[in-house]
C-alpha cells in the first residue's frame, strides 16, 4: 500500500494525533516516576484496574463504561502505593508489586464469583492504537492539557521530590501533596491510555522515553523537553514504520522507543568520554 | 496520620477478600450431592455442551466448564472444575488446539473412572491459513496455531462430533443406549436441515465476500458455502491487526460497495466499527458459538438457534434475496 495513501485514512490520523498526545503525557509523567523508582507503576496500576473492573462489573455496570467506572478505585490503588512507600518503609517497587498482585487476585476471585459475563472482558479492557474514536482523541487532549499545565506549574517541585525527598521537604516543598498529585495524574493516564492503546504500550512509554532523555539531559527543563520529544518521536516513528513494514503498530512503537534509548545511551556515553 | 489512612484501607481490602472467599462457600452444599444414577458429563465448550444436552435430554447431567463470556484460549480452571471433571463419567473437549487447558485436565484424571472424549476425531480439519489476509505477513510457527479450531462451524464436522459424543455416551451408559442413539439421529437430521437452509439462503446473495472486522473464526463456514472470507486479524485471539490490513478491508468495502462488516459476538466491536465507519458502512454480529453470553446461557440458547441468528445476519450483510 502506498505510504501517503494510508495517511488519508481517518483511523491513521486519529492514531497519529492520540498517539502523539499519549507519548507526551507518558513522557512528562514518566520522568518523575523513573527518578522516583516508580517505573513499573504503569503495570501495577493496570493490574489493579483489572481487579477494580471486576468489582464494578459485579455491580452491573455495562462493559463499555466499566473502565471509567473503575477510575475512583484505581485512584485509591495509586494512593495505596504511595502510602505503602511512606508509612511502611517499603520501597516503590515492592509497594507496586503488592498492589499489583492484590489487584489481579481480587480480579480473578471476583470474576469467578460472578459466574461468567455477557462479554469477553479483556477485549473491552485493552485497546489498540489503530481503533481510537474521535471522542477518545478529545478525551486524551483534555487530559494532556491538564498534565502539561500541572507539570508547567509544579514540575520543579516534582523534580526536587523525585531526586531527594528529604532535601525537598527541608527546603519548604510540600512533598506529600506533590507525590499525591503525581500518582493521581499517573493513575488517570494509565487507565485512559490502557483503554486506548493497550497496557504494553503505556508501560513502555512511561519508561523508555524518560530514560532516553536522562542519558542526555542536563538540568530540569532540558531533560523534561527531551523526554517529551523522545516520547512523541517514538510514537510517530513507530506508527510510520509499522505502516511501511506492515507490522503491528503497538509493538513497533515500543521497538522504536527502545532504539531511541539505545542511540541516546551511546551518545551520552560518547559525550562523557 | 498516615497510619489512620492506611489501616482502614487495608482493613477494607481484607474484608473484601474474606467476603469474596466466603460467598462461594455458602452456595456449595447444593452442588455437592450429584444424583448418582444419571450419567455425569463435563464439556469444555458450548457446542459440545449443547450436543450432549440434545443427545441425553434429561437423562444426563451436563456441565459447561468455560464460564459464559470467558475467552476459550485463556480460561484458567478452578479447583471445583477439576473436581467436577474427576467425578464425571465423561469429559468431552474439542481439540487440543482450541482448549489447551482441557488437554491438561484430561491428562490429570484417573482413566479408569473418567472417559476422555476428543470430539474432533474423524472431522475434517482446516489449516488456518493463520493469517488475516491471504498474503499473511507474519508467521506463527507454533503447531497448535496451524489448525483452525472452530471446526463445528462446518456442519458436517458438527455431525461427526455429535456421533462421537453419542457413541461415547452409549458406551458409558448402556442402559440408555437406545435413547441416546435415537436422539442423536434426530439431531443429525436437524443439522442436515440447518445445512440445507444455509445452502439455499446463501446461494442467492448479491455479495459473495464476507468481511470480518475481527479474528479469522469463520473459515469453516465460509469454505462450506463457497464464500470469500477476509478478516482483520489472524485466528488466534492474541494477534493484532496491522494498519495495512485495516486499510485493505476499508478499500474492499468501498470497491465492492459492501455496506456491512461482521464482528464477533462477545468481543468489543470497536475494531469492526472503526473499519466500517471509515468505509461508511455498519456492523453486524456473528457468533462462532464457542461461547455464549451469560444472558443467553441462562435463557438456554441452543447451537441451532445461534446458527439461525447468524444466518439472518448473513442474509442482511451479503444482501441475499
What is the highest CATH level, the class of chain A?
A: Mainly Alpha
CATH topology label of chain A: ABC transporter involved in vitamin B12 uptake, BtuC
| Structural class based on helices, strands and sheet pairing of chain A | mainly alpha
Number of strands of chain A: 0
Give the low-pLDDT segments of chain B. 1-5, 24-34, 130-144
As a percent range, the share of strand residues of chain B is 5-15%
CATH superfamily of the largest domain in chain B: Nitrogenase molybdenum iron protein domain
Beta percentage of chain A is: under 5%
Whole-number radius of gyration of chain B? 22 Å
At the first level of CATH, the class of the largest domain in chain B is: Alpha Beta
Tally of structural domains of chain A: 1
Looking at the structure, the CATH topology of the largest domain in chain B is: Rossmann fold
Keywords for this structure?
heterodimer; A: 273 residues; mainly alpha; ABC transporter involved in vitamin B12 uptake, BtuC; 13 helices; 82% helix; B: 321 residues; alpha/beta; Rossmann fold; 2 domains; 4-stranded parallel β-sheet; two-stranded parallel sheet; 12 helices; 8 strands; disordered N terminus
Kindly summarize this structure in a few lines.
The complex is a heterodimer of chains A (273) and B (321). Chain A has helices spanning 3-6, 10-35, 41-58, 66-69, 71-87, 92-113, 121-125, 134-163, 165-170, 175-197, 199-216, 220-245, 249-272.
Tell me what you see in this structure:
The complex is a heterodimer of chains A (273) and B (321). With 273 residues, chain A is mainly alpha-helical. Chain A has a single domain, classed as ABC transporter involved in vitamin B12 uptake, BtuC. Chain A has helices at 3-6, 10-35, 41-58, 66-69, 71-87, 92-113, 121-125, 134-163, 165-170, 175-197, 199-216, 220-245, 249-272. Chain A is globular. Chain A starts with a helix and ends with a helix. The mean pLDDT of chain A is 90. The model of chain B is unreliable at 1-5, 24-34 and 130-144 (pLDDT under 50). Chain B folds into two domains: 35-136 and 145-196, Rossmann fold; 204-317, 3-Layer(aba) Sandwich (Rossmann fold). In chain B, the strands form three sheets. A four-stranded parallel β-sheet of chain B has the order 2-1-3-4, sandwiched between helices. Chain B is of the alpha/beta class and 321 residues long. Chain B is built from twelve helices and eight strands. Chain B is globular, with a radius of gyration of 22 Å. At the A-B interface, helix 2, helix 5, helix 6, helix 7 and helix 12 of A face helix 1, helix 9, helix 10 and helix 11 of B.
